[in-house]
Amino acid sequence: MTESDQIPVDxxxxxxxxxxxxxxxxxxxxxxxxxxxxxxxxxTRLFVTHRGIEVPxxxxxxxxxxxxxxxxxxxxVSDDAALxxxxxxxxxxxxxxxxxxxAAGILHESGVRPEKSLTQLKRSALQRVFDxxxxxxxxxxxxxxxxxxxxxxxxxxxxxxxxxxxxxNRIGGWYAYRASKSxxxxxxxxxxxxxxxxxxxxxxxxxxxxxxxxxxxxxFQGNVPEGKLYTPAQSAARILRVVCxxxxxxxxxxxxxxxxxxxx
Length: 264
What we know:
The protein is of the alpha/beta class. The protein is 35% helix and 15% strand.
């Protein structure tokens, strides 16, 4: 299927969820879903998550200005109790999730930086990066799949990275980030296999969004070739196009933003 002949996925019979929608690419994905695109019609409701008690300003603007109900919910994806409360909140609202995108991730923060050599490895940083990038998306799936129709066409996607490809690793470095994305790919592939039994209509996708102009990539944008740094809106549209083109028979795939499969 080419981009030009893709039939938009009809989300109007249910809800969608974007985890990590406070800013950057997650916010852009939420904006695209709320307004509709060539890939998907708007859902009945859009659930979006943010960290902390207060709804961030940009997300609040989306909540106030969207043509469909956009429902913000606080969620710390590294907290099991918070995930349980989040699942209960969705269940209370009788959520029917036709599309879920996990956009939260970590490359750097205080005490965490991509490693250039073995000497820079720290157990605490490895654990933190794996927790957010690999464990959290799978545990989110555990929390939301009971609210995902079993037979209807549905989607569960998480943002991976090309550097998570073991076959494409040619320069090394970035131990924690690379390995966490490789682990994510394996976990979602395993989820897809189980999903064929429990949710026959489900398509699970790991997707590389391309280098996007966000806080995550900002310290490393000097190394990006001209024309290869994309706006959040560009990347969001491409991600939804690829995710929504997925079918149950190819669930468990690892995809590039341009619709090409990536090597494991």
